[in-house]
Task: structure prediction
Amino acid sequence: MQNALLRIFVIPIIYLLSYLPMPVLYLKSTGFYFFVYYILKYRKKVVLENLKNSFPNKTEAEIKKISKEFYKHFCDVIFETIKNVSISEKELMKRCPFTETGKKIFNDFAEKKQSVVVVIGHCGNWEWSALSYQIHFKQILVGAYHPLSNKVFDSFVLKLRSKFGATIVSMKEFYPYLLNNRNENCTIGLIADQSPPKEGATWVNFLNRETAFFSGPEKIAAKFNYPVVYVHVTKIKRGYYECDVKKVVDSGQEFKQGEITQKHVKLLEENIIQQPAYWLWSHKRWKHKF
Result:
Protein backbone atom coordinates (compact mmCIF):
# COMPACT_ATOMS: atom_id res chain seq x y z
CA MET A 1 0.00 0.00 0.00
CA GLN A 2 2.77 2.41 0.98
CA ASN A 3 4.71 1.69 -2.24
CA ALA A 4 1.58 2.21 -4.32
CA LEU A 5 0.96 5.60 -2.69
CA LEU A 6 4.54 6.62 -3.39
CA ARG A 7 4.35 5.58 -7.04
CA ILE A 8 0.88 7.02 -7.72
CA PHE A 9 0.89 10.20 -5.63
CA VAL A 10 4.09 11.23 -3.87
CA ILE A 11 6.69 10.80 -6.63
CA PRO A 12 4.45 12.32 -9.35
CA ILE A 13 3.84 15.34 -7.09
CA ILE A 14 7.60 15.75 -6.60
CA TYR A 15 8.06 15.67 -10.38
CA LEU A 16 5.36 18.31 -10.89
CA LEU A 17 6.79 20.56 -8.17
CA SER A 18 10.26 20.24 -9.64
CA TYR A 19 9.20 21.94 -12.89
CA LEU A 20 8.02 25.05 -11.07
CA PRO A 21 10.33 28.10 -11.31
CA MET A 22 12.69 28.55 -8.36
CA PRO A 23 10.93 31.74 -7.11
CA VAL A 24 7.67 29.79 -6.85
CA LEU A 25 9.42 26.94 -5.01
CA TYR A 26 10.90 29.43 -2.55
CA LEU A 27 7.43 30.85 -1.88
CA LYS A 28 6.31 27.33 -1.04
CA SER A 29 9.42 26.88 1.09
CA THR A 30 8.57 29.99 3.10
CA GLY A 31 5.07 28.68 3.76
CA PHE A 32 6.48 25.29 4.69
CA TYR A 33 8.87 26.99 7.14
CA PHE A 34 5.98 28.52 9.09
CA PHE A 35 4.33 25.11 9.29
CA VAL A 36 7.52 23.27 10.35
CA TYR A 37 8.74 25.90 12.83
CA TYR A 38 5.55 27.25 14.42
CA ILE A 39 3.04 24.40 14.10
CA LEU A 40 4.89 21.10 13.74
CA LYS A 41 7.84 22.38 15.83
CA TYR A 42 9.99 19.73 14.21
CA ARG A 43 12.87 18.78 16.54
CA LYS A 44 13.02 22.29 18.04
CA LYS A 45 14.36 20.97 21.34
CA VAL A 46 17.11 19.06 19.53
CA VAL A 47 18.09 22.10 17.46
CA LEU A 48 18.16 24.49 20.42
CA GLU A 49 20.08 22.04 22.63
CA ASN A 50 22.66 21.42 19.86
CA LEU A 51 23.13 25.16 19.29
CA LYS A 52 23.40 26.04 22.99
CA ASN A 53 25.98 23.34 23.64
CA SER A 54 27.96 24.24 20.53
CA PHE A 55 27.98 27.98 21.17
CA PRO A 56 27.87 28.46 24.96
CA ASN A 57 29.00 32.09 24.66
CA LYS A 58 26.06 33.14 22.50
CA THR A 59 22.99 34.74 24.06
CA GLU A 60 19.53 33.18 23.96
CA ALA A 61 18.51 35.80 21.40
CA GLU A 62 21.45 34.86 19.17
CA ILE A 63 20.68 31.15 19.50
CA LYS A 64 17.02 31.74 18.63
CA LYS A 65 17.98 33.82 15.59
CA ILE A 66 20.33 31.09 14.32
CA SER A 67 17.69 28.41 14.89
CA LYS A 68 15.07 30.32 12.89
CA GLU A 69 17.54 30.90 10.07
CA PHE A 70 18.38 27.21 10.16
CA TYR A 71 14.74 26.19 9.71
CA LYS A 72 14.32 28.61 6.80
CA HIS A 73 17.42 27.17 5.17
CA PHE A 74 16.39 23.59 5.96
CA CYS A 75 13.07 24.09 4.17
CA ASP A 76 14.87 25.70 1.23
CA VAL A 77 17.14 22.66 0.92
CA ILE A 78 14.09 20.38 0.79
CA PHE A 79 12.63 22.31 -2.15
CA GLU A 80 16.03 22.72 -3.80
CA THR A 81 16.40 18.94 -3.62
CA ILE A 82 12.98 18.52 -5.21
CA LYS A 83 14.30 20.70 -8.04
CA ASN A 84 16.99 18.07 -8.67
CA VAL A 85 14.46 16.12 -10.75
CA SER A 86 14.43 18.75 -13.50
CA ILE A 87 17.41 21.01 -12.87
CA SER A 88 19.68 21.45 -15.88
CA GLU A 89 23.46 21.33 -15.89
CA LYS A 90 23.57 25.01 -16.85
CA GLU A 91 21.36 26.11 -13.96
CA LEU A 92 23.16 23.97 -11.41
CA MET A 93 26.57 25.28 -12.52
CA LYS A 94 25.23 28.81 -12.03
CA ARG A 95 23.74 28.08 -8.62
CA CYS A 96 26.48 25.87 -7.18
CA PRO A 97 29.86 26.48 -8.87
CA PHE A 98 33.30 25.41 -7.71
CA THR A 99 35.98 28.01 -7.05
CA GLU A 100 38.94 28.24 -9.42
CA THR A 101 41.12 26.81 -6.64
CA GLY A 102 38.76 23.88 -6.25
CA LYS A 103 38.69 23.24 -9.98
CA LYS A 104 42.46 23.21 -10.16
CA ILE A 105 42.82 20.71 -7.31
CA PHE A 106 40.34 18.23 -8.79
CA ASN A 107 41.62 18.68 -12.35
CA ASP A 108 45.18 18.06 -11.14
CA PHE A 109 44.08 14.77 -9.57
CA ALA A 110 42.36 13.77 -12.81
CA GLU A 111 45.41 14.63 -14.94
CA LYS A 112 47.64 12.55 -12.66
CA LYS A 113 45.03 9.74 -12.68
CA GLN A 114 45.02 9.96 -8.91
CA SER A 115 42.04 8.74 -6.91
CA VAL A 116 41.13 10.97 -3.99
CA VAL A 117 38.94 10.75 -0.88
CA VAL A 118 36.54 13.69 -0.56
CA VAL A 119 34.76 14.49 2.69
CA ILE A 120 31.85 16.90 2.92
CA GLY A 121 29.49 17.91 5.71
CA HIS A 122 25.79 18.73 5.81
CA CYS A 123 26.61 22.38 5.15
CA GLY A 124 24.78 24.56 2.64
CA ASN A 125 23.19 22.26 0.09
CA TRP A 126 25.20 19.03 0.14
CA GLU A 127 22.98 17.42 -2.51
CA TRP A 128 23.65 20.20 -5.00
CA SER A 129 27.36 20.10 -4.18
CA ALA A 130 27.60 16.41 -5.09
CA LEU A 131 25.59 16.90 -8.29
CA SER A 132 27.68 19.93 -9.20
CA TYR A 133 30.88 17.89 -8.94
CA GLN A 134 29.49 15.46 -11.53
CA ILE A 135 29.04 18.34 -13.99
CA HIS A 136 32.32 20.16 -13.38
CA PHE A 137 34.76 17.24 -13.45
CA LYS A 138 35.50 14.21 -15.64
CA GLN A 139 36.80 11.90 -12.90
CA ILE A 140 33.86 9.77 -11.78
CA LEU A 141 32.36 10.34 -8.33
CA VAL A 142 31.80 7.19 -6.27
CA GLY A 143 29.56 8.03 -3.33
CA ALA A 144 28.62 6.04 -0.26
CA TYR A 145 25.08 6.13 1.11
CA HIS A 146 22.81 4.51 3.68
CA PRO A 147 19.94 2.71 1.86
CA LEU A 148 16.44 3.89 2.77
CA SER A 149 14.06 1.35 4.25
CA ASN A 150 11.46 1.96 1.54
CA LYS A 151 12.70 0.37 -1.69
CA VAL A 152 10.61 2.57 -4.00
CA PHE A 153 11.80 5.84 -2.48
CA ASP A 154 15.34 4.50 -2.18
CA SER A 155 15.39 3.81 -5.92
CA PHE A 156 14.02 7.30 -6.61
CA VAL A 157 16.66 9.00 -4.46
CA LEU A 158 19.47 6.95 -6.02
CA LYS A 159 18.31 8.00 -9.48
CA LEU A 160 18.48 11.67 -8.47
CA ARG A 161 21.91 11.39 -6.86
CA SER A 162 23.41 9.68 -9.89
CA LYS A 163 21.66 11.98 -12.35
CA PHE A 164 24.85 13.35 -13.88
CA GLY A 165 26.92 10.17 -13.86
CA ALA A 166 27.95 9.35 -10.28
CA THR A 167 28.19 5.78 -9.01
CA ILE A 168 26.33 5.44 -5.72
CA VAL A 169 27.14 2.42 -3.54
CA SER A 170 25.61 1.35 -0.23
CA MET A 171 27.79 1.56 2.89
CA LYS A 172 27.69 -2.22 3.26
CA GLU A 173 29.06 -2.77 -0.26
CA PHE A 174 31.31 0.27 -0.43
CA TYR A 175 34.62 -1.16 0.78
CA PRO A 176 34.35 -4.34 -1.34
CA TYR A 177 33.53 -2.11 -4.32
CA LEU A 178 36.72 -0.08 -3.77
CA LEU A 179 38.80 -3.26 -3.46
CA ASN A 180 37.37 -4.67 -6.67
CA ASN A 181 37.85 -1.38 -8.54
CA ARG A 182 41.12 -0.17 -7.02
CA ASN A 183 42.63 0.36 -10.48
CA GLU A 184 39.83 2.71 -11.47
CA ASN A 185 40.68 6.39 -10.94
CA CYS A 186 37.83 8.01 -9.09
CA THR A 187 36.76 10.58 -6.54
CA ILE A 188 35.47 8.84 -3.42
CA GLY A 189 32.74 10.94 -1.81
CA LEU A 190 31.94 10.51 1.89
CA ILE A 191 29.75 12.48 4.28
CA ALA A 192 31.96 13.53 7.19
CA ASP A 193 29.44 14.32 9.91
CA GLN A 194 27.00 11.43 10.21
CA SER A 195 26.71 9.78 13.61
CA PRO A 196 28.48 6.37 13.71
CA PRO A 197 27.97 3.46 16.08
CA LYS A 198 29.93 4.07 19.28
CA GLU A 199 32.05 0.96 18.76
CA GLY A 200 35.02 1.68 16.53
CA ALA A 201 34.33 5.42 16.25
CA THR A 202 37.08 8.04 16.28
CA TRP A 203 36.49 10.67 18.97
CA VAL A 204 37.26 14.31 18.19
CA ASN A 205 36.66 17.55 20.08
CA PHE A 206 34.06 19.12 17.80
CA LEU A 207 31.88 22.15 18.53
CA ASN A 208 32.74 22.20 22.21
CA ARG A 209 32.20 18.45 22.83
CA GLU A 210 33.90 15.10 22.36
CA THR A 211 32.13 13.70 19.30
CA ALA A 212 32.15 10.31 17.59
CA PHE A 213 33.07 10.23 13.88
CA PHE A 214 33.21 7.51 11.27
CA SER A 215 36.82 6.51 10.58
CA GLY A 216 35.98 5.44 7.02
CA PRO A 217 37.65 8.34 5.18
CA GLU A 218 40.86 7.84 7.13
CA LYS A 219 40.87 4.05 6.74
CA ILE A 220 40.28 4.22 2.99
CA ALA A 221 43.00 6.85 2.58
CA ALA A 222 45.46 4.75 4.58
CA LYS A 223 44.58 1.46 2.88
CA PHE A 224 45.00 2.79 -0.67
CA ASN A 225 47.39 5.66 0.11
CA TYR A 226 44.96 8.23 -1.29
CA PRO A 227 45.03 11.97 -0.62
CA VAL A 228 42.10 13.51 1.25
CA VAL A 229 40.33 16.81 0.58
CA TYR A 230 37.41 18.62 2.20
CA VAL A 231 34.72 20.42 0.18
CA HIS A 232 33.86 23.68 1.96
CA VAL A 233 30.38 24.89 0.98
CA THR A 234 29.44 28.55 1.44
CA LYS A 235 25.92 29.88 0.99
CA ILE A 236 26.20 33.09 -1.03
CA LYS A 237 22.50 33.97 -0.92
CA ARG A 238 19.19 32.15 -1.18
CA GLY A 239 19.52 29.52 -3.89
CA TYR A 240 23.22 30.12 -4.54
CA TYR A 241 26.23 28.30 -3.10
CA GLU A 242 29.95 28.07 -3.75
CA CYS A 243 32.16 25.01 -3.30
CA ASP A 244 35.80 25.38 -2.39
CA VAL A 245 38.27 22.53 -1.95
CA LYS A 246 40.77 22.32 0.90
CA LYS A 247 43.54 19.73 1.05
CA VAL A 248 43.56 17.62 4.20
CA VAL A 249 46.53 15.32 3.47
CA ASP A 250 48.55 14.46 0.37
CA SER A 251 49.05 10.85 1.40
CA GLY A 252 46.89 8.65 3.60
CA GLN A 253 49.80 6.58 4.91
CA GLU A 254 51.86 9.36 6.47
CA PHE A 255 49.77 9.89 9.60
CA LYS A 256 49.02 8.14 12.86
CA GLN A 257 45.59 6.69 13.58
CA GLY A 258 43.05 9.44 14.19
CA GLU A 259 45.11 12.32 12.76
CA ILE A 260 43.38 12.50 9.37
CA THR A 261 39.98 12.45 11.04
CA GLN A 262 41.09 15.27 13.35
CA LYS A 263 42.18 17.31 10.35
CA HIS A 264 39.04 17.02 8.23
CA VAL A 265 36.77 17.49 11.26
CA LYS A 266 38.61 20.75 12.00
CA LEU A 267 37.79 21.96 8.48
CA LEU A 268 34.15 20.92 8.94
CA GLU A 269 34.01 22.87 12.20
CA GLU A 270 35.43 25.97 10.49
CA ASN A 271 32.79 25.60 7.77
CA ILE A 272 30.01 25.50 10.38
CA ILE A 273 31.34 28.41 12.45
CA GLN A 274 31.60 30.55 9.32
CA GLN A 275 27.85 30.16 8.67
CA PRO A 276 26.28 28.47 11.71
CA ALA A 277 22.68 28.58 10.46
CA TYR A 278 23.44 26.41 7.42
CA TRP A 279 24.45 23.14 9.06
CA LEU A 280 22.02 20.29 9.81
CA TRP A 281 21.27 21.09 13.47
CA SER A 282 18.16 18.89 13.56
CA HIS A 283 20.36 15.79 13.38
CA LYS A 284 20.74 13.98 16.73
CA ARG A 285 24.49 14.23 16.34
CA TRP A 286 25.50 13.80 19.99
CA LYS A 287 23.40 10.79 20.96
CA HIS A 288 26.60 8.92 21.92
CA LYS A 289 28.62 10.09 24.92
CA PHE A 290 32.39 9.82 25.24
In short: The chain has a mean pLDDT of 94. Residues 2-278 form one domain. Residues 60-82 form the longest helix (23 residues).
